[in-house]
Amino acid sequence: MSSAPEAQGGKNTMISKTCLRPKAGVAASTRSCFAAVMAALILAGCASLDSTDSVVEIRRTSFGIPHITAKDYRGLGYGAGHAFAQDNFCALAEKINQVNGERSRYFGATTLATTAGNPIGSITSLTSDFLYKLQYDKATIKALWSKADPQTQELADGYAAGYNRYLSETGAANLPVECRGAAWVRPIAADDLYLWWASFTTVAGSQAFAQSIVDGGHQLPAVVGTGRASTTDAVLADAPPMDTRMMLASAGQAMAREASLGDSGSNGWAFGGKVTENGKGMLLTNPHWPWRALTKFYLLHLTIPGQIDVMGIAYPGSPVPLTGFNKDLGWTGTVSTGPRFVIREMTLGTSPATYVVDGVTKAMTARTLTVEVKGGAPVTRTYYSTEFGPLLKSAALGLDWTSRKAFAFTDINLPNNRMMEQYLAMGRARTAEEGRQVMGAVLGSPLLNTLIADAAGDAVYMDYTTKPNLSDAQLMACALPGAGQTNTAAGRPTMDGSKSNCSPENDPSTRQPGLLPMGKLPFLRRDDYVANANNSYWLTNPAQPIAGMPQINGPAAADIGMRARMNLTTIMDRLAGV
Length: 578
Hints:
The protein is 28% helix and 23% strand. The chain is built from 14 helices and 24 strands. About 9% of the residues have low confidence.
């Protein structure tokens, strides 16, 4: 294993140091000290974050990497927010505008907007605004994240304050040209960050289905109360049933492809002490996430003396490394297989705005939303939702709101406020086993496999991510002929919403209802190696295939793809001395 982050860098020596002297809610002055070597300077007269004296130190090395030291987590957030603002202020300011559903107001309704996992504009600003107002209601997100662990909240408060300090000291007229003097630039609060964090937590759910969510649920079916079925109804009714076992096998295969996000994942190798020169673990991380806009990972180093000392890459606009290392272990992530959502095929009642569950008719919830538009009239729509979530509309997937059916979307990561807690705990872990235990207990990773190598020589792989707790029996019995079975076979579990026993089961060991528990998720420990390249968990190490997992995890014995085969072949050849 590598030594502690503090000792890393080699020629990457410190060229600047900033001591921030903040007080909660008050802009403070900044001092910069320049040196040719790494030094621990203590500047006198620092004020406080709250009522306790505290210094937030940001040291910039020759590669521009911020090394942040503070006395508490709010201080770490403060330093991280200030450093990120120095490097990427305009990008985050624009994203804060977007996640508040105000992009059309300042940029126009037809301009393109990005989603959390795609740096290229793929939806219009109008679509983005309705998505955030409907699916990421600010009051709801605030209430959810106010129940996150205290350190997450402290990080968010500090990050917003550090960002705001940069804005206050720089001034709107002196910002980078991309946002200089822009009307949409403003100070932010923790609530704004929670909206952004919820966005990239749901990258494989609501963000991926953005257009279908916005298209669905705001136009009542044209055929109501006439006794006639729509064309879509007829297609669904006439679709022949699939062989359920073939559908289940097909679903497992497809769930690997469905989760790949266009191959925007990584290669990860963790070697155990049996095959390394010094008997300690060794880690290779090779992210494939886009290096553009606000999807480009941000490298930083966080230290609270005696509590945490971790370095790694964070998702832009957040303060916690998703992949990193401390003095005892290193970990990396790849995109795991399996869905992060459930689609429910709803049987409607006598009115198209009602639906039936276990024989009981329930009314949909109607919400009227308005988006302000630059140079045009406001756009107002009324959206209908179920207890399971908003309605979907997608011609490509055969999903529509008709006189008989509707399809509701449940994003299982929307209630997930545990991601920062998850990776803070990983940054503090001392062994691969400790890291595994905290990953399994918290289940806050929304998407990523984790591979760990530690100083004791352990190499561990785990897919301890959020997945719906749907059994193989449910996948077979609860997918109705037509769109239900077709989508389930394609890796998009579409269950009968009229039966409560077709919903994900609650396991008492998970902190969030409806999640697949740790014991049903893939895991492997080795003393030689584990590897993954966004492929199935099956051949994490060909010497010990992982089998017997629920199909919702993705396929077991299945083609792992060219890149994964190349990874494994390269490793085996190298270990064989080829």
